[in-house]
Amino acid sequence: MVTGFKRRLAETIAWCLPRAEAARAGVTTRSVELMPPVCGHDGDTLVSQLLSSKAVPAEAVGFIVERRRRGLERLKLKLPQLGDLMGGRVFATDFNSDLCGAATAPSNGYVDDYDIPGWDTWFAHEPVGQFGGVVYGWVPPALLELADQGFYVIPVSSVWWVEDAELRQLMAT
Question: Which of 32, 93, 108, 163 is the most exposed place for a label (fewest CB within 10 A)?
Fold first, then answer.
């Protein structure tokens, strides 16, 4: 099960909120500092690895969380109160996409050609379902409209918004 969900979400908000720019959505959500090793592969290899085992996305999220935590400590940034999620929203993805690339343009690169949202926004992994489980991320308010447009055009349900009831349940963990 997801551990430390609220803390990881707060850290993600603290990291992403000041960095997210709609005009550079893909760039501002894919920092070199937080890039997990698996994301250094070409898109086909990346998707294949993310779907191959629950360990791969779990390790990627763990890498991101650890790097982000160290970065926040170095910058001495305080964690926000979660209240209204600072105007953002939580999404979930299982990476099981048709790889059509339809979401890249409408999301201004927040979702890439392989239907993968920017890794800086990932904060939790849950080993459920088929393939590699589910990864949760937080979309900053500056990118909500772009992300929504990107999620909407993906022909399969590989990325979706987490509804309030499920989010409350996850935050209790």
Answer: 32
Q: What b/e sequence results for 44-78 when a residue is b if at least 16 CB atoms lie within 10 Å of its CB, and e otherwise?
A: eebbebbbeebebbbebbebbbebbeebbeeeeee
Q: Report the pLDDT value the prediction gives residue 1, as an integer from 0 to 100.
A: 45
Q: CA torsion, points 44, 27, 8, 161, in degrees to nearest 10?
A: -70
Angle in degrees, CA 25, 124, 61, rounded to 5 = 75
| pLDDT tens digits along 3-57 | 599 999 999 999 999 999 999 999 999 999 999 999 999 889 999 999 998 999 9
> Residue 107 has what DSSP assignment?
T
Three-state DSSP state, 106: coil
CA-angle at 115, arms to 11 and 104, nearest 5°: 100
Residues 25/32, Cβ–Cβ less than 8 Å:
no
In contact, 14 and 65? CB cutoff 8 Å = no
